[in-house]
């Protein structure tokens, strides 16, 4: 089968890409509205783009041409928190994607406790195994639908006790979830360990 991308609507292209680029990790992002309401939503067009400084990138689309609350709050405050949720939080991750007016807190609605940020004014989720406080670094618009690739520098990592062993993250203990197509998710399957490859040391220019 071949598909000419020019024949596809934006929705059809989204369905295709989100089914093909899998599995995707999920950035569970808290932001603060102008009136101080804690907003929470999941974003799976997510990766890291630099290790020094640590930079995370997430692609946020628009709703009927308007910025989503998450993007609008990041633009106005320049701060947010990216969480990695675990399998026990999957339902809350999914439910937090429901659209609500800006003055409704998804965190409160879902009964998720928060803690104050250390380096940002935005609260973080108490029970997420990982929370990364971020300061906005760059916004890069892409394509014809107004999507923005939002890049933020991590100003503090919070990891639940027991997640790090010998400088490495215990992935099984983290128990992350990922998104595949539509409202479908996957958890970690079998882990396969191969021989370690010799790699040239990462340099700082
Ligand atoms: C698992 C999951 C991943 C999602 N990933 C993205 C994404 O990468 N980009 C995006 O714009 N929307 C994504 N969404 C949709 C947003 O979560 C949804 O539009 C949400 O209502 C945005 O909330 P906000 O207006 O409070 O920012 C995703 C939804 C789910 C359930």
UniProtKB/TrEMBL annotation:
The keyword Flavoprotein applies. Its cofactor is FMN. Keywords: Flavoprotein, FMN. Residues 19-167 form the Flavin reductase like domain. Signal peptide: none annotated. One of its GO terms (molecular function) is oxidoreductase activity, acting on the CH-NH group of donors, NAD or NADP as acceptor. Gene3D superfamilies: Electron Transport, Fmn-binding Protein, Chain A. Belongs to the flavoredoxin family. This is Flavin reductase (DIM6/NTAB) family NADH-FMN oxidoreductase RutF. It comes from Pseudacidovorax intermedius.
């Amino acid at each position: 089968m071949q598909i000419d991308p020019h024949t596809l609507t934006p929705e059809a292209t989204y369905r295709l890409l989100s089914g093909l680029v899998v599995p995707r990790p999920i950035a569970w992002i808290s932001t603060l509205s102008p009136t101080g309401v804690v907003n929470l939503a999941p974003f799976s067009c997510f990766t890291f783009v630099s290790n020094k400084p640590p930079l995370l990138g997430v692609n946020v689309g628009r709703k009927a041409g308007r910025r989503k609350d998450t993007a609008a709050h990041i633009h106005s405050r320049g701060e947010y928190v990216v969480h990695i949720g675990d399998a026990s939080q999957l339902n809350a991750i999914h439910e937090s994607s429901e659209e609500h007016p800006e003055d409704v807190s998804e965190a409160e609605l879902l009964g998720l406790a928060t803690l104050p940020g250390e380096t940002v004014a935005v609260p973080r989720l108490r029970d997420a195994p990982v929370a990364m406080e971020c300061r906005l670094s760059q916004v890069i618009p892409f394509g014809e639908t107004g999507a923005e690739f939002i890049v933020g520098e991590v100003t503090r990592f919070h990891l639940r006790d027991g997640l790090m062993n010998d400088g490495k993250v215990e992935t099984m203990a983290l128990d992350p979830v990922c998104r595949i197509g539509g409202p479908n998710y996957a958890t970690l399957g079998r882990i396969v360990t191969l021989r370690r490859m010799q790699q040239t040391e990462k340099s700082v220019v």
